[in-house]
Amino acid sequence: MKRSSGLFIQSFIIHFKSDDVKYDSPSYTLLPFIPPSSQTVYLAIRAFNIEIARVADTVSTPQVGALRLQFWRDNIASTFDGRPPKQPISLLLAEGLESLSRRSNGESNISKGWLMRVISAREQYLNSAPYPTIEVLEKYAESTYSTLLYLTLQSLPLSSITADHLASHIGKASGIVAVLRGLPLLAFPPPPNHHSNNSGLSGMVQDQRGRQQQGSVTLPLDVMASTGLREEDVFRQGAEAPGLRDAVFQVATRASDHLITARSMLSNLRKGNAVGHDFEHEGEEGHIYDEEASKVSSKSSTKTQFAEVEQAFGVLMPAVSTSLWLDRLQKVDFDIFRDELRRREWRLPLKAFFAYRRKAF
Q1: Which residue positions in the chain have pLDDT lower than 70?
Q2: Which of 40, 45, 290, 336 has the fewest CB atoms within 10 Å, counting from its CB?
Q3: Kind and range of the H or E element at 37?
Q4: Number of C-alpha atoms within 13 angstroms, CB side, residue 337?
């Protein structure tokens, strides 16, 4: 591309701040921790995710949503073929791919298949159907939020089984939290153009309860069954629905468990030990490593792995924003409808700074 990369990135950041930041403010806050050479791809991936995630909110039927998602499949395919459409996200992604190719002498790229996987995962839930089990929810989080982290690691470029393993757990936690955050908006859909992370919910919930057409409760069905939570009770009673807080607690605990696992892995590596368990996705698409990278027990190997994690740490920073939100959820006793859960986390910049400095989250 002939245009200046720096100017192009700056113009997109302005757009990201003024519009997309409403939907994913933590990603913008964490941008400075991504190496400058990878920020183009990072912004493109995050903006792509926002567009894909919002399809269900902006179409009248799942059929129309499927057409929109096919538009994005075609855009991604054309961009990887070197023919990016004149669309901001596609052009930014093309710029990032070109930059990565230059930096790696053509040896590295990001996975088109992973971008397609994000689209397919979102397509499965265009109708906001509940997840059959909490394991299915985890699989969805792996196919979306974990995959976004894998893509960003590729943009460094970095191929590391340990960094990917950490990204898997952090992405699963982030994806589960994203579903929890979205629950009130899906149960009581607001008027158009109000899908922001910063909207108040109490008045909206009161206004929506009287309407005949309701949204959906996207908590896993097995969790709802175990806590006695019924969807109709959520529609009628909102935050006071019997079993709702217990169900939210169970799902939030699963997200917290993934963060605890990631912290334990990081602690083990810092002590010169193995991470403690195998990476369950090793051998799958994009997770095939050479023999040396797969050795996780020797002392020299753990030192190498920790060095790789330090290189990848900026990509793993969503662990900080996810942890802060879970802390807030606990402080409001798992009342998912509380307005403060929708507000921006003012502590994130400072917490992120110290987490990055200490290489601990």
Answers
A1: 1-21, 191-214, 291-300
A2: 290
A3: none
A4: 20
Q: What whole-number distance in Å separates Cα of residue 261 and Cα of residue 317?
A: 15
Contact 297, 197 (CB under 8 A): no
Amino acid found at 322: T
Long-range contacts of 13-22 (CB under 8 A, 24+ apart): 13/43, 15/88, 16/43, 16/46, 16/47, 20/46, 20/47, 20/50, 22/196, 22/197, 22/198
In angstroms, the CA 316 to CA 165 distance is 11
The three-state secondary structure class of 1 is: coil
Q: Which residues of 71-107 are buried (b: 16+ CB within 10 A; e: fewer)?
A: ebeebbeebbeeebeeebbbbbbbbbbebbeeeeeee
Cα 336–Cα 337–Cα 342 angle in degrees, nearest 5: 90
- The tokens describing 222, both together, are 């097995």
Comparing CA positions, the residue from 185, 210, 189, 213 lying closest to residue 197 is 185
Give me the pLDDT at residue 294, please: 53
Question: Residue 171's closest CA among 285, 310, 21, 322?
Answer: 322
What single letter denotes the amino acid at residue 7? L
Written as one string, the DSSP assignment of 69-111 is HHHHHHHHHHHHTT---SSHHHHHHHHHHHHHHHHTTT-----
Q: What percent of the chain is modeled with pLDDT above 70?
A: 84
pLDDT of residue 8: 57
For 78, the token pair is 């054309």
Q: Specify the pTM.
A: 0.90
